[in-house]
Amino acid sequence: MIIFDEHLMMRAFVQPSTGLIVPITPQVEDLMWAFVDKDGGFPEKHPEIETQDWRWTGWKRKSHENCGWNHGDLEYPRYGLPGNVKVSVHKFFYELYVGPIPPVMQVNHLCETTLCVRPSHLDLRTDSENKRYSMSRKGALVAA
Ligand SMILES: [Zn+2]
Questions:
Q1: CA-CA distance, 53 to 111, in Å (whole number)?
Q2: Partners of residue 11 on adjacent β-strands
Q3: 91 C-alpha vs ligand 1 centroid, how far in Å?
């Protein structure tokens, strides 16, 4: 979760499990942007999206690696903030450049490019909306 820290006078990331606070300095932002390829290509499955993906070229993590779900080979961008605090980059960028993520919501990729971190390609859905959406996508694949 990203908050505005009154003492530091800057935004900071709070790690929910430990309560650890990592200031988001301009250097931290610059380091993250160094892993973003803004010529990531246009989303193949979504010709209606007329802007290119901003593709994460840094560290990745397979989806649901630790929870036993098998979502195939989907990979999501991850980044280690100072202090070895790991963040999910698309969520981080959403919070940093769009706004807070309410607890019941998930950040969804409109472009279906799981490595994309472009804020305009991201929106919020509830968990059940997200599941329904991915089910309908699977249904569409079967129908095709
Ligand atoms: Zn995208």
A1: 8
A2: 4
A3: 13
**pLDDT confidence of residue 143:** 41
pLDDT, average across residues 10-18 = 92
Q: 111: CA distance to ligand 1 center in Å? A: 5
pLDDT digits (tens, 9 = 90+) for 56-79: 999 988 766 555 555 566 889 999
- Looking up residue 124, the CATH number of its domain turns out to be 3.90.75
Position 10 in a domain: no
Q: Quote the ligand 1 centre to 83 CA distance (angstroms).
A: 29
Please report whether residue 15 resides in a domain.
no
pTM across the whole model: 0.82
Whether 9 maps to a domain, the answer reads no
Report how far ligand 1's centroid is from the alpha carbon of 52 (Å): 6
Q: How many other CB atoms sit within 10 Å of the CB of residue 81?
A: 19
Is residue 41, in this structure, part of any structural domain at all?
Answer: yes
Q: How many domains does the chain have?
A: 1
Closest alpha carbon to 40 in 86, 77, 1, 92: 77
